[in-house]
């Protein structure tokens, strides 16, 4: 697993682009591509803003630092109501800006500093993904969902699909 921050960022860019490509397709089951993309984008931006962006901003003073552009991307990542097209554009802008400004700046750091930054970035990104929005869906088996629905007293649970059970449980928790 890559720990050099330049390699980690490139890997993240591929992952974000893959999620962005999924936004145009329909999905079945528990996957909500725009929601997954927003969660990944938010986790990436928050992790990068903590240490990577400030370090890169110091290193790239000659090229100019697009602070406004990164602020707009962060705002898009944290917005609750944003269209899938706007999310995809935000990802494209983020990847372009990071490839132009951040990656060259961090590549000029010593290897040990890049490795440390890569580890810190991954830990923060993973923590942000785990602690994402409280309404995010956890993947549970149909049996587990059925048992939860039984305990909650959901009617007609035996004829429900996995997605319907999840929705019924979420609706129950919202009404309490």
Largest sheet: none
**Continuous helix count:** 7
State the end-to-end distance. 43 Å
**Secondary structure category:** mainly alpha
- Unreliable parts: none
Amount of beta strand = under 5%
Shape: elongated
Indicate the mean pLDDT.
85
- Helix fraction by DSSP (H/I, runs of at least 4): over 70%
Structural Rg: 19 Å
> How many extended strands?
0
The number of distinct structural domains comes to 2
The helix/strand series, from N terminus to C terminus, equals HHHHHHH
Describe it.
Helix content is 72%, strand content 0%. By secondary structure, it is mainly α. It has two domains: 5-130, no CATH class; 142-175. 26% of the residues are buried.
Blueprint (SSEs and pairs):
Blueprint: H1 5-22, H2 33-59, H3 67-78, H4 84-107, H5 111-130, H6 142-152, H7 162-175
Helix pairs in contact: 1-2, 1-4, 1-5, 2-3, 2-4, 2-5, 3-4, 6-7
What are the main properties of this structure?
176 residues, mainly alpha, 2 domains, elongated
Short description:
With about 180 residues, the protein is mainly alpha-helical.
